[in-house]
User: Which sequence fits this backbone?
C-alpha cells in the first residue's frame, strides 16, 4: 500500500566545512579566527608594514622583517601580531606561527627593556660562560632566585637568555645586549653591565653601534635603519670588527700571502 507524499521541501543551502581550503590558501575556520583577533595596536605601523612588503617581489617574503616590526610594537610576537602579519601578507596564521616559533629571535613572551644573551656554547663555556650566565641570572632575579631562560626581571630591566653561539669565538666569553657585543667578559664585568642597565644607563658595547633598547633595535631589524625614531644612522654606526678577527687577514697582507686559485669546472686551476 503506497502513501501519498506532500510537496518536496526546498533544499538547504550547502554548508561550507570548516576545513575547506579557500582561494587565499587557508581554511574557513582559520580566516574566521584571524578576523576575530583585534589588531588595532598595529594601526600606527601599517604604513611601515606596506613599505616592508614593497621591498619584495612576493609579499610572503616580507614575513621575517614584518615579525620584527611586530616586536617593535609589542616587545614580542603575540596572537594579535600573528594575525596582523597574516592579514598584511594574505597568508594563514598557521604559516606565520610556523615561522615565528622556528626562529629563536622571535619571542612569544614580552621582553624587558633589554635582551641579554649570554653565550654558553663550547668555547665560551670553557672560558667562563656558564659562570657568567649563572651570575647574570642571579643579579636579575635576586639572591637565591635566579631567573630562568627567557625570563624577565621583576623591574622589567632585562630578559635573560642563554645563546648557543654568538659567532665571536675569538673574543670569548661574550654576551650581547640587544644584539650588541660585549667581548672578553668576566663574571665581574658582566654583573657591572647588568647593574648599569638596572640604573637606566646604557653602557657602550665593546664594538658596534651604541646601545639602544630591544624595541628600538627591532625597528632596525625590520629594515628602518635611518629612522629618527631610533636615532637615525647613528644608531647603526660603529666599528663591528675586532682586532682579533682581522689579525689573520692583516698578517696575510703584510707577508704577501694569497689563497690558492679556485679550480674551474674542468678541474684545472
Assistant:
Amino acid at each position: 500500500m503506497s502513501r501519498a507524499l506532500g510537496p518536496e521541501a526546498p533544499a538547504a543551502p550547502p554548508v561550507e566545512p570548516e576545513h575547506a581550503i579557500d582561494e587565499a590558501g587557508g581554511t574557513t575556520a582559520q580566516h574566521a579566527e584571524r578576523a576575530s583577533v583585534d589588531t588595532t595596536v598595529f594601526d600606527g605601523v601599517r604604513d611601515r608594514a606596506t613599505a616592508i612588503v614593497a621591498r619584495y617581489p612576493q609579499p610572503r617574503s616580507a614575513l621575517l622583517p614584518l615579525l620584527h616590526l611586530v616586536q617593535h610594537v609589542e616587545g614580542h610576537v603575540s596572537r594579535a601580531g600573528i594575525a596582523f602579519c597574516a592579514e598584511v601578507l594574505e597568508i594563514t596564521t598557521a604559516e606565520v606561527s610556523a615561522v615565528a616559533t622556528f626562529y629563536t629571535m622571535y619571542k612569544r613572551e614580552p621582553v624587558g627593556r633589554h635582551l641579554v644573551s649570554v653565550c654558553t656554547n663550547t668555547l665560551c663555556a670553557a672560558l667562563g660562560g656558564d659562570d657568567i650566565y649563572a651570575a647574570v641570572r642571579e643579579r636579575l632575579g635576586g639572591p637565591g632566585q635566579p631567573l630562568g631562560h627567557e625570563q624577565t626581571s621583576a623591574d622589567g630591566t632585562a630578559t635573560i637568555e642563554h645563546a648557543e653561539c654568538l659567532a665571536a669565538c675569538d673574543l670569548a666569553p661574550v654576551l650581547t645586549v640587544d644584539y650588541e657585543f660585549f667581548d672578553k667578559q668576566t663574571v665581574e664585568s658582566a654583573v657591572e653591565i647588568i647593574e648599569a642597565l638596572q640604573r637606566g644607563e646604557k653602557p657602550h658595547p665593546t664594538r658596534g653601534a651604541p646601545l639602544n633598547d630591544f624595541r628600538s633595535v627591532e625597528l632596525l631589524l625590520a629594515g628602518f635603519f635611518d629612522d629618527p625614531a631610533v636615532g637615525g644612522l647613528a644608531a647603526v654606526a660603529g666599528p663591528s670588527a675586532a682586532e682579533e678577527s682581522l689579525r689573520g687577514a692583516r698578517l696575510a697582507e703584510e707577508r704577501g700571502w694569497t689563497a690558492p686559485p679556485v679550480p674551474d669546472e674542468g678541474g684545472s686551476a
Q: What stands out?
A: The chain has a mean pLDDT of 88.
